[in-house]
Amino acid sequence: MAEPTQPGPSRGRTAEILGLVVLIGGLAFVLYKFAVRGDAGRKAESAEDRGHVLKVLFIGNSYTYVNDLPGTLEALAKAAGEDPYIQVQGFTAVGANLKVHWDSGAATAIRDTDWNFVVLQERSLIPLESVDRDTLFFPYARKFHEVIKARRATALFYMTWTRPDSRAPQENVTRPYLDITRELGARVAPAGMALELVLKRNPNFKFYADQIGQPTPAGTYLVACTFFAAIYEKTPVGLPATVTTAARQAIGVSRDEAPVVQSAAWEAFLSSKARLNEK
User: Fold this and answer.
1) Phi and psi of 144, rounded to 5°?
2) What's the Cα-to-Cα distance from 115 to each of 13, 138, 155, 208, rounded to whole Å?
3) What's the Cα-to-Cα distance from 38 to each of 10, 43, 82, 92, rounded to whole Å?
4) CA distance 276 to 187
5) Which among 49, 125, 40, 135 has a CA at the least distance from the CA of 86?
6) How confident is the model at residue 49, as a pLDDT?
């Protein structure tokens, strides 16, 4: 079963399980949220909070929940002192694609809350034209976008990367994500493009934890930097090299790596934005 991000007590936060759906085939889906409790933070649903929070729902699989990507993004925004700050929730399962999430009821999670952003992460190889781009990725991206748009939220695509066990170039992953983002008028966090830039500048950067492409903590930090750029449209350059999540997990890179990683995330965001504006 995919494990949700488990917040720790450092900010008076607790994890509340909202729902559990077990599907045929043994996949389990956990919808979890973070709530601010006690003196350490403001009440999550206060009028003041609603005016100073960006609510972000992540729909994805292990590329999302390994190393707590949502929590890492939240910690980066906190370190930057951003207002509005970010509050995350997640709907994740191991190996899930958008179709599986759609069939499992993720659309209900979207309808139940006034989100600002809903992150859509497709399973790694499905966006490839030679795999299931036209039969799974594009159709279900469009289905989810209709629900997201109806809630007046913004769809934010999580552009992933080419896997170590695949010979496909990054452009074969990049192009479908940019195409669907442009078609739907959505946004994209170009993590795959950022990784490509980092590896050109530092081939020894330890991004991959395994052959199916799951990220190391350093890799998750890079991805979080691209989300920071995509949501705030600000550079992550200058942010701390390491942040601590609500679960007291330290995620980051070395001080020497930080400028390369942060600048690559920002440059990838600018490049993706330029390509989206191309006719």
Assistant:
1) -65, -40
2) 20, 22, 10, 31
3) 11, 8, 22, 28
4) 9
5) 49
6) 59
